[in-house]
Write a structure and sequence with these properties.
about 120 residues; mainly beta; seven-stranded mixed β-sheet; four-stranded antiparallel β-sheet; about 0% helix; globular
Length: about 120
Amino acid sequence: VQLQAFGGGLVQAGGYLRLSCTASGNIFRINSMGWYRQAPGKQRELVAVIVSSGSTIYGDSVKGRSTISRDNAKNTVYLQMDRLKPEDTAVYYCNMDGGSYSQDYWGPGTQVTVSS
């Protein structure tokens, strides 16, 4: 299973970003897909996850200004974050739980920098 992410880059505070992540390969089953992020010197934290039932889970720091959605036919998950803040600056990692053995898969990470 491979995860390929699109989006990210440099964004001004108050703006928005849209990330997408597509899973490919021997997927077999997707239990959940979502995004985590890691800022310098900090632990990786949950941004948002969408599970197979369609339920969504958001991290406290992005709740209310983020929306995660998916396209099952394309094995793709989308994340839109609004009202960006400098503290949203981090490397964003796509995650998928699934496959033949319900494993965790991680994308290579995409840098998001929010300028004040």
